[in-house]
Amino acid sequence: MSEIERYIAPKKLDDALEALAGGPVTIVAGATDLTPQITGGKLSYKATLMNIQHIEGLNAVTKKGGTKKDGKIRIGALVTVSEIRGNHMLKNHAGILCQAADHFASEQIRNAATIGGNICNASPAGDMIIPFLALGASAELARWQDGSIETRSVPLDEFFTGPGRNMARDDELLTAVTFDVPPENSIGLFRKSGPRPALEISTVSMGISGELTEGTLKNVRVAFGAVGPTALRGKLTEAALEGKILNQEVIQAAALAARKDVSPIDDIRATKWYRTHLIGVFTEELLNNVCQN
Amino acid sequence: MAENVAFKHIEKTSMIGKRIKKPDAPAKAIGKTRYINDMVLPQMLYGKILHAGRPHAEIISIDTSEAEKLAGVHLVITAKDTPDLKLGFVKDNAPLKSKVLCERDEVAAVAAISEAIAAAAIKLIKVSYKDLPGVFSAEEGLKADAPQIQENFPGNKSLKFEFKHGDLAEAEAGSDIILDHVFNVHYVTHCCMGTSCAIADFDHNGKLTIYSQTQYPYNYKMDLAPALGIDPGDIRVIQPTTGGSFGAKLDVYPYEPVAAILARKTGRPVKVLFDREEEFINSPTRQPAAIHLRTGCTSDGILTFRSADVLMDNGAYTSWGPTVPVIMMRTVSGHYRVPVIDFKAQAVYSNNAYAGSFRGYGNVQMTYATAQHMDMFAEELSEKYGMDPIEFHLKNAQKSGEVTPQKSYLRECVLAECLTTAAEASDYVNKHKSYTEARAQEGRYKRGIGLASSIHNAGGAKIHKSDGCGTILKMDDYARVTVITGASEIGQGIDAVISQIVSEELGVPPEHVTLVNNDSDIGPWDVGVHASRTTFIAGNGAKRAAIKAKEQILAAASKQANVTAEELDLRGGYVVQDKDGAAVIRLDRMLRQMHFQPTPDVVMVSDYYEPNSELEGKDHISDHSAAYSHAVHIAEVMVDTLTGEVKVEKVTMAQDVGRVINQMGLEAQMEGGLAFGLGFALSEEMIFEEGRLLNPNFRDYKVPTAPEMPEIEMHFIESDCEEGPYGAKGIAELPTIVVAPAIANAVYNATGIRFLNPPMNPEKVARAIWEKKQADS
Ligand SMILES: Cc1cc2nc3c(=O)[nH]c(=O)nc-3n(C[C@H](O)[C@H](O)[C@H](O)COP(=O)(O)OP(=O)(O)OC[C@H]3O[C@@H](n4cnc5c(N)ncnc54)[C@H](O)[C@@H]3O)c2cc1C
């Protein structure tokens, strides 16, 4: 463990970004990923430790516009999993996020864990990543450039580059996650598995969203977790469903496609066989749930 | 001012069977309790151990110079500083090692002024190793060309046990059904919330005070002394509050002498405290075992024989783990009436982790096998001959007064009542039948119900020369009672039970009883908290001491009141007339009168209770416990046949408790015991690869969480044990022992698949169901 030379807790985004531009900084939000990684020796502190929890303006959930194309939802990086879980607007418009929050860790961890931390940690098993991928969300990144803030937006399905790795540069902070307000006829479902009902890291996880009109699914997005080096979009599954009337034949074809979409590994938590098996089971289960509702 | 006691009448009531709060519960709940882990002594140094982290290697060289140079480091020691010091009851272990035999092996240790410096110093020690080919299973260890692990144990053979009774060949010939299976019981560990800790401190006369989590303080002195080369009499053991033991602290492990050696050499108190990862890697495990069980039965449903051949991976050193066959064989020979027995067990050294004692002590492993065989017979007899499953169990259940082939004398045996009570309460027979029928039908979720039962010693187990316990009881001038007992409190609740018993006898409130039991220089001998023995043994001791005190007080009062002592009683803080409860004198006044007179009569009594059991002995033929008890568990499960998740929805238990003493403590032991069995059955597993533990953390070692606890329905059957205090029997291990096979039998009822190798985790269950489906279609 290397020594922390400086600890800062800026209130202004400007100050935080300036500090980031100025040299090696370890960012900490809820510390629920960082602390175990440091004590486990997987990571060491950089010279400056920056607590971002006090930065103003990063902890809001806002909706601008309606469900007709122009609407946007923006979730600040410091919003906690508990806040997502209890947010009524999200329940109405993006319930899949609340479902994932429901299955996340335990009360104590949910109170501390931020969505920024979950996304930047870039675990293939990160539970909030799945609903965001299914919602077609983008990461908003900010940095200090020539005396002012410069932001860019990266679609989440391009953001993850490997286990624990993402596209954010060293001088960039994730400030928010944004996505279009899903239309009225949208569906969104999340499923996660682990041997225990509580406090469990996903063996696999899955999310699906789309628009359902008269039994037909459109604009389908499928996301899988813990089945590859990063959380990923299930392109074959999406193709098997797009524009189709949801019946048993289509569901079976989608479950088959899902098994092809994923490339899990054997590790101590599960074998490749079991992860692939579960992806098929979950795909069927979620689509059957769509049919039933 | 003298109180007028005329017209005061106090009815006779009893504390026994009431719900008594654990005296230390509030402090624990609000975080006020100081555990050993929190303790800091003046001038204390922090000890840290360098573990090998590899399973088998020569140590070529150790360079401690960089570590010694680090500011704040007082001392670095290696095996060179501790030659000839041996540990363990076959003396095959040492505080620090000159050769590595398993991952946890202690190679060097540091004492420093802070935990952080000690940890940093450990990283600066340079060790060069030459890795050796290892042995990673009992089977490998037995091979002719296997590497030799322990010099003094040729062929890697460790402990061996045998018991035979009757003619096996004849019994086999007379059997209509013979079952033959190998059950592989896996590695699990205790996961005490308080990680392992010891604080050692020497005085200038060379006497060691060790603050320890031990659950057997008196034998501990004997076991620790040779690891330090000192006299056991020069060790004082103090037991601060511990965060759980469950068998893990029934032996001396290397970190304890290491703390003492560091303390002696630095002249300062030294504390060694494990972090969670160290705890996982360096704690004892439950003894894993491959149990080859054969059982015979006639078409009438009468058991004919059991033969068990048990192969145990001893790991690198011998702690209590490989002695568990002593208890396994009592179940093989004594659970249900089995006329012919052939039991063998062999432990084989390897480069794996080594096992200690763990709640259930071999019976968790053996009952997982025997209770599944009973279920298999019940299935087959019902299918072929239409026999009712409960009738099959009842036919073979012993009755009071029967003696097992090992000479366990079942004085009060209520196995039949346990079986019928649990079966009726859960509607076992009907549910079992309807779930069996539903098995063949379509559907993702399947319900199942399963029954299992076992026997366990419930009045101690005389493995040592004495299974006794000493008690000293004194009363002060205010009628407050102090009980000094040998029995340790490690969370199980002897504090509540002893206050309750003393309160019962002396008619004082339980809050007026103080227990002193954490200092070996004060307390008299006891063999330790294990074998479900403490309420039975120490409870008897406390009762006998309290009766002596009562007799002394009533004798004095009888002189004063001019009646015989038999006509008096102690109730509600008074001496009263036994017949109508009329108050004679306040108890505290009576005690003062006894005390302050020309010939003082002060209440200070003592007792040593030795149960009437017989020493286990080499041939294993003895009535080794003062009581035996049975439990029946019926588990109801829901299986997701696609994900393989098993949800235990309800457990109905019926257990012979002899007599309920503290109802609340009893319920808590049932729940806690069940949680251990649940984790063992479904999710907990230490995963090893070539001797290295791959999941030394709670993320990947999965203990049950609150939502997994099933609904529990408890039925306490009171057999009224003649030898037990107020009729009580020991109760704490059976709930851990019986639940796992009940779940396994329920999963079979739901799926038609037997799981011989726990844990029944989702992947294992899903895979087995999927494979069966492939094979069936
Ligand atoms: C007991 C336990 C249970 C858990 N259960 C789950 C679970 O069920 N599902 C799940 O997905 N996860 C789980 N986690 C993991 C963890 O809680 C989540 O990933 C959480 O969302 C991380 O958020 P945080 O605020 O604590 O991140 P931190 O630990 O503070 O940070 C994580 C990483 O992201 C970086 N970072 C944080 N915020 C930003 C930002 N705004 N910009 C740039 N970089 C940033 C940090 O530098 C660090 O590298 C669990 C963890 C624990 C300890």
Describe the structure.
The complex is a heterodimer of chains A (293) and B (777). Chain A has 3 domains: 6-51; 61-180, 2-Layer Sandwich (Uridine Diphospho-n-acetylenolpyruvylglucosamine Reductase, domain 3); 186-292, CO dehydrogenase flavoprotein, C-terminal domain (Enolase-like, domain 1, 2-Layer Sandwich), CATH 3.30.390. In chain A, the strands form 4 sheets. Chain A has a 5-stranded antiparallel β-sheet with strand order 4-5-10-6-7. Chain A has helices spanning 13-21, 34-39, 81-85, 88-93, 95-102, 107-112, 115-121, 129-134, 156-159, 235-241, 248-261, 272-292, and strands at 6-8, 25-28, 48-51, 61-64, 72-76, 138-145, 148-155, 160-162, 165-166, 173-180, 186-193, 204-213, 216-225, 232-233. By secondary structure, chain A is α+β, with helices and mostly antiparallel strands. Chain A has 12 helices and 14 strands. In chain A, a hairpin with a 6-residue loop joins β13 and β14 (232-233). Chain B has 777 residues and is an alpha+beta fold. Chain B has 3 domains: 25-33 and 468-609, Aldehyde Oxidoreductase, domain 4, CATH 3.30.365; 36-132 and 195-241 and 249-282, Aldehyde Oxidoreductase, domain 3, CATH 3.90.1170.50; 289-461 and 618-776, Aldehyde oxidase/xanthine dehydrogenase, molybdopterin binding domain (Aldehyde Oxidoreductase, domain 4), CATH 3.30.365. In chain B, 29% of the residues lie in helices and 24% in strands. Chain B has a 7-stranded mixed β-sheet with strand order 3-5-1-12-9-10-11, sandwiched between helices. The N and C termini of chain B lie far apart (92 Å). Chains A and B meet through α12 of A and α19 of B. Flavin-adenine dinucleotide binds at residues 26-34, 36, 52, 77, 104-105, 109, 112-114, 116-118, 120-121, 126-127, 168, 173-174, 199 of chain A. Flavin-adenine dinucleotide (FAD) binds at residues 26-34, 36, 52, 77, 104-105, 109, 112-114, 116-118, 120-121, 126-127, 168, 173-174, 199 of chain A.
